[in-house]
Each structure stands twice: as C-alpha cells, then as structure tokens.
Specification:
By secondary structure, the protein is an alpha/beta fold. Helices cover 23% and strands 35% of the residues. The protein has three domains: 277 residues, Alpha-Beta Complex (Spore Coat Polysaccharide Biosynthesis Protein SpsA, Chain A), CATH 3.90.550; 59 residues, no CATH class; 105 residues, Sandwich (Jelly Rolls).
C-alpha cells in the first residue's frame, strides 16, 4: 500500500493591495481586510486550507506554511491562532515576487517534512465558495502532482474579463488538461475570442506541485533564479531548523530576481497541466470585486455599513463607523474610513492605486497607517493630535508587554480605563487598576504590561516638542524589534 502524500498548503500573504485603499494600506494590507462577516481574507484562506481532507496535519492539527513580510508576522500569527491551525512562517525582508517566495517555501518544506512533500500554493486574498468542489479540485491536482506535473488551477470564464490572465489548454490527461500556453490580460475583443473558443480558463494564481519537482524544474528553466534562491536558502543555515518562523537574510534575498513563478517557470515548462475549478472564485483585486459581494437593492445600490440612498442608482458605499447618505448619485463608489474618504467613478476602480502613488510621492502617512495601528502586543489608536500633544487609546492583549523604552522629546500620562496593568516607571514598578494613573517624564525608562486576563485599555496623553513614533529607544523587547 503506497504512502499517502503530505500536502502542505503554502499561503502567500503579500502585496500592498493599493487598489483597495483606504482600507488596505502598507501597514495593514489586503489579506487583513475584514469582510462583512467579520473574517479577514487571510483567516478565510487559513480555514479553507484546514478544511481540505488531505491537508498535512501535525499531531492532529492542520498545518500550513505562510510566506509573508517580516512586518506582518505578528498580525499573521494572531489570525493563525484565531483559525485554530498551526503555521510555519517564512519571513521576507521585502517583496521579491512569487518565484522567490515559492522556491524558498519548497526548500523549507523539504527540510521540515522531506522531499516527498507536495505544495498547494494559495494566495491569501482570494474568496472561494463551495469548499466541497474546491477539495475535489485539490485532490485531482494532488494526484497529478504525484506524477511529476506542475499543476495550476483554472477558473471557467463567465464574461470577457480583461483583468485576469488566461490559460489555453489542450488534450485531457485525466483529472486535468495539458496547458498549451499562458496569455496576458487581454483586450476586450481578445477576451471575447477566448470566451467563444471554449478552451480557455482564467488563471487563478493557485498551484500544486511536489516541492522537489518544483526546484528541479526551476533549475532547468530558470537556473539564475534557482541558484540565487539556493544561496539565499543556504544563508539561513545558522537558524534553528525547528524554528516555526524563519527569517530570510536580506543581503542574499536582494540578489534573487524579482519575477513571478508564471514568467520564471510555468510559461516554459512542458510539465504544466491545469485543473479546472468547479467552485466560485473571486480575486479580491479592487473595490468592484468587494462591491459584488453585497446584494443590490432595486436601483442597483449596494452598501456595507449604514447607508441611506436617495434618488441614487448603481452606487456602492462601504462605511465603518458612521452613516453615509447619498442624494442624486449614479455609478459612484464611496469608501469611508475614520481618517480617509474615497469617492470614485464606479467604472474606474482599477485606478485607485494612482491615489496611493500620489500619497507616497508626498510621503503622506495615510498611505501606510490607519488611525488604529497593530502591534505585537495589541493596538493603539490616535484619538487626537496637535502642536506639542497627542492622545492615544491603547489596548494590550492579555500577557502582552511593550518594550522597555525611553523617549527624548515627550512625557506621557497613562490612565487605566479597564484591566490591570504592571508599569515600570523609572526605578519604580507599579500595579494600576481602573481609574489609576502614572506620569512618565521624558528620559525615564518605562514599560507597560497586561497582567490581567482581559484586554487592558488605557488612555495615553503625550506632551512635548516632538510626538513622532520614531522618538523611541528600546532597551529590551521580547518581540525582537530593534
């Protein structure tokens, strides 16, 4: 009896999601966006991977490998814990596209689980319906991967879509079809031609292949990529092989070509097959895709949040904290967040990324951060700021602890709203309960820790000549930050 293959889901959780600004930002990108049901795209991807019948399990727990940026590690770990799965992490110092991410994931998978492990590569920003059909497609792909094929998943086109790449397929292989070629995002006329031909599928960006087969094929068709990835992988050798989070050395990673797995390998290899997915699929790549998740009213209006439409048609509104009213609008998108508002022509959702480009040119913080910012220990929200002052609401998770730190240019006053805090303030160590406070002069070493079982909430009032986040010196930090 043959040994059952080890199927390791590899979650690619990167990308800035600039077309989904102002909700998706550099410091809190698209995979962490929460949809109307309260789940983020990353959480949905974790749950989908864990539901697979043939998903690898360690001590009975579904296990995946997440490739993400170092800055998103703690955010990702929180989502993984909520999804009740186990994840290894491969942490990139910066983006180098999918060929590098997948090849390094193959090296890590082989080192951890052996050369027979099969990878199921899943982007973290897809929505997939009908998990039974998804499981069936993955099983078919796994069988083909065991035969040495590199498998991609195709989606049956429902319209002449110009926002996706296409896959042309040839003869049937039993469970999949031989790929004839990959096609870039086409014009409307070409997309209609592909739709009419009947042997084209949308390229989903999901893959399944043996880790060893992937590396062998990469060596054959993209030797410069394979060699630079190997050198980068070898440089991780000083790290503990059993570490759940493996950091990629920046100096070596910088030399790896920034190229997609499609360009580097899939478009060249003669071992590529496609499995047609019989499931609903949505690449959440723009506000138009998010809009389509909401049910329309009689005038084609859709809303996520509290909204009133008056003499309005074909308009989409997403609002987080307040009611939005529209009067006399048509074909408009309105995305409202606490510190930024987007109003756009509904037919130009792809152009939202241009706003982010303008913000980055101006070095505007709204391109990167929300008013509420996640940290390994919890979150902080800027309530108000002005000349020589800033007011924050701070939440610290149970057992969470800020770094031992000091500020040169500001003093801080902490007032506990709920929970129980342990505070280091200079030479003193204090325990603060509700309505108790402490004052921390500039130049004092200090630390905040939640020693209770509930979330610790406090108000921080900063005052001084400079209240920027970079006025901080860390003396000790359990999260490994500088």
């Amino acid at each position: 009896m043959s040994k059952a293959p080890l199927l390791l889901p590899v979650i690619l959780s990167g990308g800035a999601g600039t077309r989904l600004w102002p909700v998706s930002r550099e410091g809190h990108p698209k995979p962490f966006m929460k949809l109307a049901d309260g789940q983020s795209l990353l959480e949905k991807t974790y749950l989908r991977a864990a539901s697979l019948e043939r998903c690898l399990r360690v001590d009975g727990c579904p296990t995946v490998l997440t490739v993400t940026n170092t800055e998103y590690y703690f955010l990702s770990r929180d989502v993984q814990t909520k999804a009740n799965i186990d994840s290894l992490f491969l942490l990139e110092p910066f983006a180098r596209n999918t060929a590098a991410a997948i090849a390094l994931a193959a090296h890590q998978a082989i080192r951890r689980f052996g050369k027979d492990v099969v990878l199921l590569v899943l982007p973290a920003d897809h929505l997939i319906g009908d998990l039974g059909q998804f499981d069936a497609a993955v099983s078919a792909a796994l069988d083909l991967a065991q035969q040495g094929y590199l498998v991609t998943f195709g989606i049956t086109p429902t319209a002449p879509e110009t926002g996706f790449g296409y896959i042309e397929y040839g003869h049937d292989l039993g469970g999949g079809k031989k790929v004839s070629r990959f096609v870039e995002k086409p014009s409307v006329d070409k997309a209609q031609e592909y739709l009419s031909a009947g042997n084209y599928l949308w390229n989903s960006g999901m893959f399944c292949f043996g880790a060893a087969a992937l590396l062998e094929q990469l060596q054959c068709w993209a030797p410069s990529v394979a060699a630079s990835v190997q050198a980068c992988w070898d440089a991780t050798g000083s790290q503990d092989q059993l570490d759940s989070a493996l950091e990629i050395p920046a100096a070596f990673f910088e030399s790896v070509p920034s190229i997609s797995i499609d360009y580097a390998l899939m478009e060249h290899s003669d071992q590529v097959v496609v499995v047609e997915g019989g499931f609903a699929w949505n690449d959440i790549g723009s506000w138009a895709a998010v809009r389509d998740l909401a049910l329309p009213d009689g005038q084609g209006n859709r809303a996520l949040g509290e909204c009133i439409f008056v003499d309005t048609s074909n308009t989409f509104v997403q609002s987080e904290d307040r009611l939005v009213a529209t009067v006399g609008l048509k074909d408009i998108m309105i995305i409202d967040t606490p510190d930024a508002l987007l109003v756009a022509d509904a037919n130009r959702s792809q152009d939202v990324k241009s706003v982010v480009s303008e913000l980055k040119l101006a070095d505007h913080h709204i391109a990167k951060l929300h008013k509420t910012v996640s940290r390994p220990w919890g979150t902080y929200t800027v309530l108000e700021e002005g000349t020589n002052f800033k007011i924050k609401r701070i939440e610290v998770k149970p057992k969470g602890r800020l770094s031992l730190q000091m500020h040169h240019h500001r003093s801080e006053h902490w007032v506990v709203v709920s929970g129980l805090a342990k505070v280091v303030n200079g030479e003193k160590t204090l325990t603060l309960a509700i309505n108790e406070s402490t004052y921390i002069p500039a130049g004092h070493k200090h630390r905040l820790e939640n020693i209770g079982s509930e979330v610790l909430v406090l108000i921080e009032v900063q005052s001084g000549s400079y209240t920027g986040e970079d006025d901080i010196i860390r003396f000790d930090d359990e999260y490994g930050r500088e």
